[in-house]
Amino acid sequence: MIRLLRVELTRLRWRRAVLLLVAAAIVIPTIILAARAYETRPVSDADRADAQEQADVELGFQREQIERCLQAPRQFGIAPDNAERQCERRLSYPVDPEQYLYREQLRLDSELSGAGLAVVAVVAVLMLLAGTTYVGHDWGSGSMSNQLLFESRRLRVWGAKALAVGLLALGVGLVALAVFWGGLLAFAQARDLDPSGQVVTDVAQQAGRGLAMIVAAAVGGYALTTMVRSTVFTIGVLFGVSVAGGLLFGALLPDGALRFEPATNALAVVKGEVTWYVEPPADCAVVVYDMTTTDSDRCATQARLTQRGGAVYYGVLLLALGSASAASYRRRDVP
User: Fold this and answer.
1) Bridge partners, 277 (sequence order)
2) For residues 267 and 269, what is the distance between their CA atoms, to the nearest angstrom?
3) Helix or strand or coil: residue 273?
4) Which residues are within 8 A (CB) of 256 and not within 5 positions of it... i.e. 6 or more apart?
5) Which terminus of the chain has a lower count of CB atoms within 10 Å, N or C?
6) Residue 274: which H helix or E strand, with range?
7) Which run of H or E residues covers position 305?
8) What is the 3 state secondary structure string of 14-77?
């Protein structure tokens, strides 16, 4: 099995499409990191000079308006005999250069619900494509039958391929998440924004859950493509779930159906918990200003899905898909 795994890892290494996807899975998180570092950069002297210039322009405009008011006070609804005092009172307002210097500060706890989720989603999709491209090429080129000439035990071949794809996703996910979160931690420390121990713990836990989803996505893409023997079909399923899944579960089905929507469960796994609004029964006495009800259990306006619920959802889905894929690979004829 070890020798077979080495062969599959070598084949993965020489597949150019897979290498491009791996490169993208490292480059894109790096770009997201650079964007977040730039957007939250400290205010520089040049920024302060620009802010002062904008404040001076605003003050100049204010003075022009006051002069116009003094020359023609009736146009501003002010009596001429009271123009000097009223024009100054009505048209002058404080202008502080600091109001032009607002910039978001780097906060790791905010990144957990923002860019951190985006990185996991991007890497997971790219690794899913890597898994489906890898085995899809074998079916498309007809090389699968040649491979079975050297190892006729199909379940061993299926397992070796799945393990190789999983190890690839594990390694790429580790690097991508380490680059992103390690870079953010380094920027925070360089800016004297050392995060608390709890935030670092939250980052590590979310990165671990995200890594599990990345591996599951790669193995799931491989298993589905092995079962249907078509890369195009798997990509179509991915596109359909990402585009039409939210519409189907969110608009066409009842609120409770969101519990089974793939994106909702993935978000619950990575974030640890996710909530969404549900319409309470018509007979619930809802207080508008604070949304409290007479029956908190039956009349709740929010549904909640925990990390455990999402993990069970994807565990059952991956087990069912893997079992069906392995059974199909074992029994069906290989062209």
Assistant:
1) 302
2) 5
3) strand
4) 278, 303
5) C
6) strand 273-277
7) strand 302-306
8) CCHHHHHHHHHHHHHHHHHHHHHHHHCCCCCHHHHHHHHHHHHHHHHHHHHHHHHHHHCHHHHC
Q: Are 127 and 21 in contact (CB under 8 A)?
A: yes
pLDDT at 318 over 90: yes
3-state secondary structure of 35: helix
What's the token pair of residue 14? 């020489």
**164 and 157 Cβ atoms separated by less than 8 Å:** no
Amino acid, res. 298 = R
Amino acid found at 248: L
The string of pLDDT tens digits covering residues 144-164 is 666 665 666 778 888 888 899
Please compute, for residue 190, the number of CA atoms within 13 A of its CA located in the half-sphere on the CB side.
Answer: 11
DSSP 97-150: GGGG---PPP-HHHHTTTHHHHHHHHHHHHHHHHHHHHHHHHHHHTHHHHHHHH
Nearest to 255 by CA among 284, 228, 280: 280
Give the residue extent of every domain in the chain. 2-41+105-331, 45-100
CA neighbor of 181 nearest in space, from 164, 162, 195, 161 = 195
**60-117 residue pLDDT tens:** 888 888 888 888 888 877 888 777 778 878 888 888 777 777 777 788 888 888 899 9
Chain-centroid distance of CA 36 in Å reads: 14
Q: Are the C-beta atoms of 31 and 123 separated by less than 8 Å?
A: no
Angle in degrees, 0-180, between the axes of helices 83-91 and 45-71, rounded to the nearest 10: 150
Identify residue 250 by its one-letter amino acid code: G
